[in-house]
Amino acid sequence: MHVLLVYAHPEPQSLNGALKDFTVKRLEAAGHTVQVSDLYAMQWKATLDADDTLERKDGEPFHPERDSKHAFENGLQTPDIAREQDKLRWADAVILQFPMWWFSMPAILKGWVERVYAYGFGYGVGEHSDTRWGNRYGEGTLAGKRAMLIVTAGGWESHYSPRGINGPIDDLLFPIQHGILYYPGFDVLPPYVVYRTGRTDETRFSTICDALGHRLDDLWKTLPIPFHPQNAGAYDIPECTLRADITPGEVGFAAHVAPPALRVAAKG
Amino acid sequence: MHVLLVYAHPEPQSLNGALKDFTVKRLEAAGHTVQVSDLYAMQWKATLDADDTLERKDGEPFHPERDSKHAFENGLQTPDIAREQDKLRWADAVILQFPMWWFSMPAILKGWVERVYAYGFGYGVGEHSDTRWGNRYGEGTLAGKRAMLIVTAGGWESHYSPRGINGPIDDLLFPIQHGILYYPGFDVLPPYVVYRTGRTDETRFSTICDALGHRLDDLWKTLPIPFHPQNAGAYDIPECTLRADITPGEVGFAAHVAPPALRVAAKG
Predict the structure, then answer these.
(1) CATH of the domain at A187
(2) Cβ neighbours of residue B268 under 8 Å, at least 6 residues apart?
(3) Which residues have CB under 8 Å from B158's CB, separation 6+?
(4) Same-domain status, A233 and A139
(5) Chain B interface, best mutation among A16, A40, A47, by max B CB count within 10 A
(6) Which domain holds residue B121?
(7) What is the pLDDT of residue B268?
(8) Percent of chain A whose predicted confidence (pLDDT) is above 70
(9) For chain B, which terminus, N or C, has the lower number of CB atoms within 10 Å?
(10) Average predicted confidence (pLDDT) for chain B
(11) In a shared domain, residues B53 and B89
């Protein structure tokens, strides 16, 4: 299989650097082909702006959506953007690996998403009608591919627990797992998270690699997070709110994950 | 009063550009002094890396926390970072204004947070002991100042409602409002959010400005979101989990906002 690892850490001699190397080796040893987008090493341009479109008319106001659509449709994207889109098309699975900085991904990775997810590629795909609101959340350009996060955090696991002060890790990652990965169609696997990274001696590093190794071995077996697809009946369109009979009364991020009963029903 | 507006949109001739100009005028007309950090116009460096520390030893691995601490303590930060910290110290209120891109702030603004919030300034402040876990979440360098978000979103308001497919807006903004603003001490006001920005004619723009104007007029009167302070008794330390008798059983982001009963008790 083809795996794309999008990796965002500034220092190769770091826990993240070591986990990246481990991940590549483990996947290659299992017979997979791996490409790494090492964003810091590539000096990835983090900022979405008018320079992302070749041959722009001078003086015309830059409109992020319209310019992106125009560039994508007419082969006027900068080569760095087109190259990453090609890697995504090539991949069967995509891993985003990053340290949690201020409860989200580093800016350089956020800028990768903003620039690579062009209009017509990452969003703005499919028809909007009375029954469909675009090909998104379970459908889209990247449907049929798998995605997984590898995340490191300095804080303790309890700080990210259901009543932890930082907020539960699943909720902190929802805008990425649901909003960035499920949106253009990925099947999203549960994340692999390492906490308290300041305390990583060799014994602990070996334990971390063991657990990560099993996750990588199971990349094609692990069940994805069962988010509700947008256009398959769980949502009223165009409001895009959960239908009244789907987990009635439940609100918030977790409501968009199908409970076990509904998963069985959907299979039957 | 002194207001710092940190603004992240690439095009002056946009809804965001117009709202930025409106905000500056309205605040100045009320007698406030305003500074604007127009990140795109400043060509703000979005990516945190070793170049953020002056006079680094060649060949030594870059460690984001340690290098940031060393630079902050020894006057070795790059001038762009030090300048933004000075603006934050100067400000009585800080407004972050941005378009919601992929359910979070644009990369350029995320990179402003990552670089300006140095160790010893934005985090790593105060003692860690059996009763305190640093000066954070309600205490810290920026305590006593107010902060507010002005956010634009292309999607419909219903898509961001409690059962909307994107997730509730309050939850999407929690990592910013709680994790980035409350963390170093800001009192965080409810956000001002504009939805469905693609449909903004002159009438609607005028309505939007009216509502925003009232929010700006009330910047010093509006009650902040009553997040629980970390070190005032609501959390077990060092686990940093909500004490068992605080909204028992409640989990998730909303659990960190004091319910009305507790707010009255806290005042009494």
Answers:
(1) 3.40.50.360
(2) none
(3) A239, A240, A241, B164
(4) no
(5) A47
(6) 2-225
(7) 41
(8) 98
(9) C
(10) 95
(11) yes
Of B133, B154, B230, nearest to B185 by C-alpha is B230
Q: What is the pLDDT of residues B69-125, one digit of tens each?
A: 999 999 999 999 999 999 999 999 999 999 999 999 999 999 999 999 999 999 999
Closest-approach residue (CA) in chain A for B158: A239
pLDDT digits (tens, 9 = 90+) for B206-236: 999 999 999 999 999 999 999 999 999 999 9
Six-digit token string for A99: 């340290």
Measure the CA–CA gap between B171 and A167, rounded to whole angstroms. 10
Chain B interface includes A48 (CB < 8 A): yes
Both B264 and B177 in one domain: the answer is: no
Q: How many domains does chain B have?
A: 2
- B192 burial (CB, 10 Å; 0-12 / 13-18 / 19+) is buried
- What residues are paired with B236 via a beta bridge? B241
Query: Does residue A37 carry a pLDDT above 70?
Result: yes
Does A175 contact B10 at a Cβ distance shorter than 8 Å? no
Query: Does residue A28 sit in the same domain as residue A129?
Result: yes
Q: Which of the four pLDDT bands, split at 50, 70 and 90, describes residue A57?
A: confident
Alpha carbon B51 to its chain centroid, in Å, reads: 25
Question: Which of 175-214 (A) contact B at CB < 8 A?
Answer: 175, 178-180
Distances B241 to A128, B235, B246, B254 between C-alpha atoms, Å:
43, 5, 10, 14
Mean pLDDT, rounded, for A106-123:
98
pTM of the complete model: 0.97
Inter-residue contact B136 to B171 (CB < 8 Å): no
Instruction: Tell me: do A26 and A71 sit in the same domain.
Output: yes
The verdict on B173 and B46 lying in the same domain is yes
A167 and B174 within 8 Å at the Cβ level: the answer is yes
Query: What is the identity of the amino acid at B130?
Result: D
**Are A162 and B63 in contact (CB < 8 Å)?**
no
B191: exposed, middle or buried (Cβ count in 10 Å: 0-12, 13-18, 19+)? middle
